[in-house]
## 1
Amino acid sequence: MSKVVGEQVVLITGATSGIGYEAAIAIAAERHDGLGRRVVIVGRSPEKTARCLAEIRAASGSDRVDSLLCDFESLASVRALAASFRERYDRLDVLINNAGTVYDRRKLTPEGYEATFAVNHLGYFLLTHLLLDLVRRSAPARIVNVSSIGHASGTMNFDDLHFERGYQVMRAYHRSKLGNVLFTRELARRLQGTGVTVTCLHPGVVATGIWDHAPKWALPLLWLPRRLFFISAKDGGARLVHAGTDPALDGVTGVYLTDFQVKPPGGLGQDDAIGARLWALSEQMTGLGPAT
Ligand SMILES: NC(=O)c1ccc[n+]([C@@H]2O[C@H](COP(=O)([O-])OP(=O)(O)OC[C@H]3O[C@@H](n4cnc5c(N)ncnc54)[C@H](OP(=O)(O)O)[C@@H]3O)[C@@H](O)[C@H]2O)c1
């Protein structure tokens, strides 16, 4: 395939379901100067990704939607994704780190890391670093990290980051989502003055596939609230579109968004000393920094 040159590019991970899928349709459907932006979706299953690519093209009316593959459980796969992206595109205007999951039972990645932390935090961290020069070159540009309101309940126990001493699904999820908030703040600080903004958001409580990974005993309890109170994937996706492309957020960086508004993060979400420690550890864990 020939290289795409000079087009604005939006990369969305986790775009084969839920809010990422809906955001991909909405952004591909936006028109700017008659051209629109090229949207690159990332999925993990070749078949599902091919199907979603066709659906997103049809629903958006844009054929400038491409796809790449990555399993964020594997850092090697994240590196392969970044390499494929760099082969194909010469800029990256908006990076939306959205692929996320929960694990009912503790699972370790090929690198030996607790999988929730690896997919939801290390995946964002490594992909962003591997593409950061392209983002900087494309400034004004944006990085959006999809977090969760659950970050406010998150702990960052550096002595047991991988839950060797007992695993609980929501504790693992909240830790990873706290990681998204702390990463956003530290990256925004480091990118001050570059024209690259970094934000994170809670997309709402959204009726998507992520809830299917809840413990089996919780599924019947979720059935009614899901139908009554959860917002749709389309409405959740609109929060990603806002963070990624709304001109009202031009220049706004280092913030946490919920319901289209800037709000202070909760819990440890403003503890930048923990953020700095997490950053250094994440560099080591992803092979970006010196090992201890
Ligand atoms: N739904 C909510 O209420 C809610 C609330 C707060 C935050 N969030 C956040 O929103 C983001 C999107 O979630 P969603 O609600 O849209 O859930 P979803 O429908 O389950 O979509 C998750 C997406 O991430 C992908 N993904 C999961 N694990 C992956 C892996 N190992 N490698 C590559 N891709 C992977 C999924 O791929 P497949 O299609 O192959 O499964 C899918 O495209 C997540 O970061 C989540 O934490 C959601």
Note: The longest helix spans residues 115-137.
## 2
Amino acid sequence: MATKGVFRIECPHCGESFDADFWTVVRGDRDHAVKELILSGEFDLLICPHCEDMIQHEEPFLYIDPPKDLLAFVMPESYEPEKDKWIARMNADYEPVRASLFAGQGITSAPRYLFGLGQLSAILESDRDREEETDVMEFMAREEGLKLLPVNPVVARELDLPFTLPMPAGLFSRAAGLKAAEGLFAKNDALPRLKNLIEALKTGKDDTIPFVKI
Ligand SMILES: [Zn+2]
């Protein structure tokens, strides 16, 4: 699904031009090696075939991760001063393929418009920390015989919650979820996002949990 485009680049070191491949669409949930390049900062590095020097060169691309409900237009940092113009252009460029790219992908959140890879890697790093804490919590929850319900990823990012919510088997209520989360936190208080989840559950007005995807 990851898609590449070819762009002509002029090497800033030797002045020669060459054609280079760039990702135009990256599927975060499938292109694991490409996602690692983004996280390691190597995504936008090229080697000039003439002088073999390293060049950093950003081109706009689309980052999609449907299970994480994330869709981001990632543009070079240098575009930021004219962000309105570029956002309009990105939207126009992707409009013809929007249906085929997004249909049935389960992305419900609004697109994010990011300038510079740093803004994307910050989201991905934060998600990775969240995944690690979620894994620890899930391990404990399974030992307690609890089941795990998916938290809406957009709300998980917004409120800094785990990606899942523990719930006793056969139950679904805010009170039961709160009790399960508090029970896990009593056993391991080194889980800040679980604490945020407890706070979020406490603020609920009735027995529903609006941020759990069912
Ligand atoms: Zn060169």
Note: Strands lie at 3-10, 17-27, 45-47, 54-56, 61-65, 70-75, 112-115, 146-150, 164-168.
## 3
Amino acid sequence: MSRGNRVNIVTLGCSKNTVDSQKLMRQLLAGGYRVEADSAGFADITIINTCGFIHDAKEESVDTIVRYAEAIRSEGRGKLFVMGCLVERYRNELQDELPEVDGWFGVNRPQEVISRLGLAYRPELNGERILTGPAHYAYLKVSEGCDRTCAFCAIPDIRGRYISAPLDELADEARLLADRGVKELILIAQDLTLYGTDLYGRQMLPELVRRLSDIESLGWIRLHYLYPSDFPMEILEMMQDNPKICRYIDLPIQHISDSVLRIMRREHDSTSTRKLLYDVRRMVPDAAVRTTVIAGHPGETDKEFQELLDFIGEYRFDRLGAFRYSHEENTHAALNYADTIPEKIKEKRVAKIMELQQEISAARNAALAGSVMRVIVDRREGLFLVGRSQHDSPEVDQEILITDAKNIEPGTFIDVKITGSSEFDLYAEFRQ
Ligand code: SF4
């Protein structure tokens, strides 16, 4: 294959896919390709990195493949490759339905993609990547797969067993990112809680975070997805003492009703979940607690839903995402239960949760008026700088719109005074 060809990598789904795409881009660049991310223009080779998690994500992935296949057909040239979770789940069906695609690759197959493009995989570039988003924050994927058996979830089937990346490799990767200007490192995994158990025989998240916080130029370390059982309490102690660890706890509870949690095959029940959540508030009172919940799971009648809604009102999470249950093939829930709750009811339940969360969020934000916060500047937007405090993760949480700040670059930490708020955003002025 001739060198210098233009490759466009289109990434769908979660931040784990983003990391995979960025590492692939680095390999292709080293092999002489011109690489772009999510470009709208024509490319000689388009690679779509898909998501296959739930119904809406699958639909988006298929639509994207079809759109690019049509563009390539009308152009009369170009190759289309598809990789990632959707392929892992539905390779045979996709091959039959979309013969115009030139190659299909499952998850964790960068070597195969690279070799198909006429290159040899370069192990010396392990951990290197091309940052496609803002340069001041980056995701660090600490493990692959998941060993939990949540009934609704297709991830273990798609991404396989839990495999931790070695501590040294992660520390090297983080150092490389920091050298390139990353100030905020966001640790991601399906389940951060179990980090290290497969490799070292014990939970090593605290040790990993300690090692990463030794990297001088990193300002913040953020943790995404701590499973509620086996929760590493040491992390909370570290948060109390180490200002680099964002006081941000992302703990997806999924539900609070014992009967639903049992059907979900979660490893926590209502009592242990409540205890953990209140322990978190006691130990790190100023932390933002984020969660996700599922509405309409098999076994959730009006009674269990009300229980969930009541608990959300009682605990008043700082951040919350609510999702409609999606009945996914080959999951334990799909094999053992009927999806009896109509989509309309699921939607109504999600809307009710979000309505309540909006009130909670508005009240929480209003209470911040006059306080001073340290924020990282993400970008400039007209007259405003847009930033986030340690309580907010990029792309999923709220932002702070800052006035009176000139000549401040993205990635800079500044202090701001909160002057106003809405349900999901804050307004602030720059403090000299
Ligand atoms: S912890 Fe449960 S919901 Fe999360 S990825 Fe693993 S199986 Fe899925």
Note: Residues 343-366 form the longest helix (24 residues).
## 4
Amino acid sequence: MKFEHLFSPITMRGVKFSNRVQRTSMASGLATEDGNVTEALTERYIREAKGGVGALVVEAAVVIPSKSPYNIRLSSDEYVPGLKAMVNAIRAASPETKIGLQIMQFLKLSRSGWRQRVEDFKPEEIPQIVANHAAAARRAVEAGFDFIEIHCAHAYCLASFLSRANKRTDQYGGNLTNRMRLPVEVFEACRKEVGENFPLGVRINGEDFHLNGNTLVQSSKIAIKFAQLGADYVSVSAGSSFEDAVTPAEGHPPDPMSGYSGHRMSPGFWWPDGTHVFLSEGIREAVREAGYETPIIIAGKIREPAHAEKILAQGKADVIGLCRALLADPDWCVKAKEDRTKDIVRCAACNWCFDADARYEKVNCVRWPEGLLSCPENFGPAQARPGAIDKKLL
Ligand SMILES: Cc1cc2nc3c(=O)[nH]c(=O)nc-3n(C[C@H](O)[C@H](O)[C@H](O)COP(=O)(O)O)c2cc1C
């Protein structure tokens, strides 16, 4: 086989993933306003799973009852049946694909420009954060997911506790040991809920990419700690922070995707392919040196199967995370496996999808025919919508 590493299986706690491609979490805006699953959402995931990914991480499910329109939720038992039906439908369409769920607590925002900070949590409120994640983990198991990912990356609650920008003066802030305390408590509580036979991964930032953020120095230590706790994988992402967000327009909440760090999360066309591979390479080396074999996942503008194969062959990561590349062409895996690489509809890294998300719109791809919410079947070489990318700027 041409891409031997990419299409070799990997097993985590007895769960076998058929290849080394993980579709990373991607907010879609396709849930209902109150966080329920829709037909469009299920169709999106069915279409992606049918393209042959080993693992598919369903977008961040909110673990707290606060309002968060169009994000899926797991803040109460009432959301379990909808998610269960979706998982069953994806599994029926693609029995080989293992289906995961990212669980996430966000920090609250207001149109007045106010945003909740980690320093705002009173000490007596911290156990609730742990309990929220643990309850969501239990519900995800009930809904039939194959694995869970705890969201400790980007601008959300747990990543903000991990960040050097966390200036709490109690045991949950300040030095790195203290900043890791809450994510560690969350991980341990989730493990208790899901048991020893269920894969539980974490997503962290390899670098926050703002002045007060973590770098590889801190993220390596964070990854080692999760490896020591028995995390089944560490998925390495980057960026997205309120610290360097641009000042929002009047009546709009702050947007963690608006600054430099935000744009690092999903590198645009002006960044090189494999933008963040140096982060997974550094983290993997540190984790291996500490004596752990924990799989390290890397995403960030990896678009070509040959490039993905090389990253794995060179030991710079164990699993390749694809997000926008699979949105552009959900058949990426099937085409790579069948040696039809030239048929892959390339992600232009134009961030049409990213911009839609930032505007709280439904996320789709510039390369699909106008108006479609999912990639059409029999997706051949794409006809891009004109004007998506100005090649002169490359
Ligand atoms: C529209 C959009 C929504 C995203 N939502 C999430 C999310 O909910 N959770 C997450 O961990 N990452 C999220 N990401 C980041 C992706 O998972 C991925 O790490 C990033 O886009 C880089 O990978 P790529 O170059 O393959 O797209 C999102 C990215 C985009 C473009």
Note: The first strand starts at residue 10 and ends at 12.
